[in-house]
Design goal:
The complex is a heterodimer of chains A (88) and B (496).
Chain A lengths: L1 H18 L20 H15 L3 H4 L9 H12 L6
Helix pairs in contact in A: 1-4
Chain B lengths: L8 H9 L17 H7 L2 H19 L2 H14 L4 H15 L7 H7 L9 H26 L8 H18 L4 H30 L5 H4 L18 H7 L4 H35 L5 H9 L6 H32 L17 H8 L1 H16 L7 H24 L2 H6 L1 H7 L1 H23 L6 H19 L11 H11 L5
Classes of the chains: A mainly alpha (88), B mainly alpha (496).
Chain lengths: 88, 496
């Protein structure tokens, strides 16, 4: 489950970086928004992606951009939602 | 992507090697990409040279205050174990030195006819500031303890309600002269620190690790700000601080570079102002508007030139001001993104908005956009995006400007001030629609093929949009919306 989720998040991050014309490589820990790689308009796409793909309800738990700032951070969110403990 | 000294390790590694850096002519050399310069900036002589160079560059910007800023920033940078407390102490020291960085409504209120003039406005403002900071501290502690309980789980809504109630009370004139002055002083102080307070409350929700008193250390931090917090709150500052000597050296070199660029822009700005106003005698945009309203409009070409110059003036002013502040924060060890980053290269309206005044946009996004987006119209994607964008770019934008210019309420009364904001509200509404449409376009992807279709055409469209919209970006409550429209029509050769 976790590796599948990580793959989907990876693919989405790559797509958004390409769309924003940012070609830099990234690791799972690299900051996407706080570093300035992506902007808040793109953050919206991530919110919608996580809501639809992983059923995450930000209205319920509150939203902070750090929650989606890296692949690892998004995996943490997914892990909390699915109750699968620490992400792989 | 704003120049951020982003510091994810691959980016820093690339900078270290100097890989991919093409040799070309620079106005300011990219010192932070030269391994030798970075290595030197990590040594004690290098640090002394860097801080001295920064200080010299800062003198034309801050005058006598430059030495104090540089000492505080250097202490913060080179004593990382005490960085947060140094920032807090420096901010509070700067506040004691200059408590009047925001206009004193006490003095304005006391100057109104019929209200006692024999008060010490400065003392009142200082006293009110102390009261405000103590109340803010109490609110932050309460927030950290009871953050899940309503209404504390909606901190910004609480703050807006409290501010609105205070303003109504101040504008109602139900009290005697002295209480009225005290209430206005409260409104002025609360308004000046409103967004700093907001970030502190959000930080209190998201993190328990910042000591409460330390939150006050970034209420108008020593490196500068307007009522918009440059650098946001501690949550963001902690994320962006240099983690080791190497990152610090790169961050500080970027700071020196940015400050130097700010000075270059100052010279450019002075040359532009002199050429346009003294040599070419192009009227200021306010003059063009006043002449139009008086029935003696300037010729069409002069009105266009006036509008374009006003647009460039605003861009340069924002860049010069923001660069100097961000540079000081970088010297202190915080890898802050620039406030203004190449806005003239924007290919969409949303991108321009992001590049023009970054921290103001971030404020609107943090306090209005995200809270709306995650809660409202979740089943209707387009409406959801529109509503959240409208709440930020229009409602939040108007609220921020209204609070900044709150002394207008003292001058003309609350009702007339609200009505007078019609032109700016129109500007903000059009801006919101523009950003929304641009975001929808962003979802579909931007055409990148070709130099003309992929770059020149979209950039021209964006600049034209913002330049023309500038007609309505007027917070002055004197002229009405129809009067601004008359000037817009005149620009297109239609005189009504």
């Amino acid at each position: 489950m976790t590796s599948n989720a990580r793959d989907r998040i990876h693919a989405f991050v790559r797509e958004q970086l390409a769309r924003a014309d940012v070609s830099a490589k990234f690791t799972d820990a690299d900051s996407l928004f706080i570093s300035g790689r992506l902007d808040s308009a793109t953050a919206v796409q991530f919110v919608v992606f996580l809501e639809t793909e992983f059923d995450i309800d930000f209205a319920e738990q509150g939203f902070d951009v750090s929650q989606i700032d890296s692949v690892d951070a998004m995996m943490n969110l997914v892990a909390q939602r699915t109750g699968s403990g620490a992400p792989a | 992507m704003p120049d951020s000294a982003p510091a994810p390790s691959p980016a820093l590694a690339a900078l270290d090697r100097g890989a991919g850096i093409r040799r070309r002519w620079w106005i300011i050399p990219p010192l932070d990409t030269y391994p030798a310069a970075v290595a030197f900036a990590e040594t004690i002589p290098g640090r002394i040279a860097l801080v001295a160079a920064f200080g010299l560059l800062l003198i034309p910007v801050q005058g006598k205050l430059a030495a104090a800023t540089v000492v505080a920033a250097a202490a913060s940078a080179y004593l990382p174990a005490y960085r947060h407390w140094i920032v807090t102490a420096a901010t509070l020291a700067f506040l004691v030195h200059n408590p009047s960085w925001y206009p004193s409504l006490a003095a304005l209120a006391a100057a109104k006819p019929g209200i006692a003039a024999s008060i010490d406005a400065l003392m009142l403002q200082r006293g009110m500031l102390l009261v405000f900071l103590l109340l803010a501290l109490a609110a932050i502690i309460a927030m950290q303890r009871y953050r899940q309980r309503p209404p504390l789980n909606r901190p910004i809504l609480c703050l807006l309600t409290l501010y609105g109630a205070s303003l109504l009370l101040a504008a109602s004139h139900v009290f005697g002269a002295m209480p009225q002055i005290v209430i206005w002083t409260w409104v002025g102080t609360f308004g000046a620190y409103f967004w700093f307070f907001g970030y502190a409350l959000i930080d209190a929700v998201s993190s328990k690790h910042t000591p409460s008193v330390m939150q006050l250390g970034v209420f108008h931090p020593f490196w500068g700000s307007s009522t918009t917090p440059i650098g946001k709150g501690w949550t963001n500052l902690r994320r962006t601080e240099a983690k080791n000597a190497h990152e610090l050296a790169i961050t500080q070199l970027k700071g020196v570079k940015l400050l130097a660029w700010s000075l270059v822009l100052r010279v450019l700005y002075a040359a532009l102002r002199y050429t346009t106003s003294q040599v070419l005698t192009i009227p200021a945009f306010d003059q063009a508007l006043a002449a139009q309203i008086a029935g003696t409009p300037f010729p069409l070409y002069l009105c266009w030139l006036s509008l374009i110059c006003s647009f460039l003036d605003n861009l340069l002013t924002a860049a010069i001001w923001g660069h100097a502040i961000v540079a000081c924060a970088r010297l202190a060890g915080f890898r802050l993104l620039r406030n203004t980053y190449r806005p003239l290269e924007s290919r969409t309206i949303a991108e321009f908005w992001n590049r023009y005044i970054f921290y103001f946009k971030e404020l609107l996004v943090d306090f209005f956009f995200y809270p709306t987006f995650i809660r409202c119209f979740r089943k209707h994607p387009r409406l959801r995006l529109f509503f959240a964008t409208f709440m930020a770019a229009c409602v939040g934008n108007v609220i921020w400007h209204f609070m900044r210019d709150i002394s207008v309420v003292l001058d003309v009364g609350l009702v007339r001030a609200v009505i007078g904001f019609q032109t700016f509200a129109f500007y903000a509404a059009v801006l919101a629609v523009g950003i929304w449409m641009s975001q929808l376009k962003l979802r579909r992807g931007i055409a990148t093929a070709g130099w003309f279709r992929g770059k020149i055409l979209p950039v021209t469209r964006v600049l034209l949009f913002f330049c023309i919209l500038q007609v309505f970006a007027d917070e002055n409550v004197t002229y009405s919306l129809p009067q601004h429209f008359a000037l817009l029509f005149h620009l297109f050769g239609v005189d009504v």
